[in-house]
Specification:
With about 190 residues, this protein is an alpha/beta fold. Helix content is about 45%, strand content about 15%. It has helices spanning about 5-10, 15-25, 35-45, 55-60, 85-100, 120-125, 140-145, 170-185, and strands at about 70-75, 105-110, 130-135, 150-155, 165.
Length: about 190
Amino acid sequence: MAVKLKDIALDTGGSISMVARILNNDMSSKSNEQTVSKVFESAQWLGYFAQRLAPARYMEYKGADKTFSVACILTSEHETYVSPIFSALLAGIQQEVINQGAAFPHNFFVTYIKAPGFFTFIQNTKLDCAIMLGRTSLENINMLKSTIPNLVYAVLNEIGHDIDEVLCDAHLAVEEAIEYLISLGYSEIGFI
């Protein structure tokens, strides 16, 4: 049986939303280190990480070596965790960051840029780089570039603005999907 966030919340005495924020490295989580540790221990004990990618913050508790620090900047509070595209990109990025031996201290939403103390927070975390998922304004990009030494945009469409970009070729992906469906014998293919 799959372990749910609800199971971890019941085991730790916390709320489901608190558990989700901790396990997703969400910066808005105001949980103390003892609570974070308790959630990770419960998740491990219940087998939660056997079913999915363990967050890098958990890897820090397990003693992974930190060579450089990376953050993920999420531009959509509504789509990131429910969108098949954004959630898959985020999971892939987190896994590769862990594979490379880096610390992955925070996921945060681009809307936090306007929060008082945000830039102090970024300076205190000593981020080496950040990966941005989704579009945002040129103003936000410039604010991030002024504080984070290396900023990378990863998603579907080129945005320019003098930052490194890792793009998915949506046209090629659609072509491959159609060819695959045709190879399975489908002849009437529609798009939604």
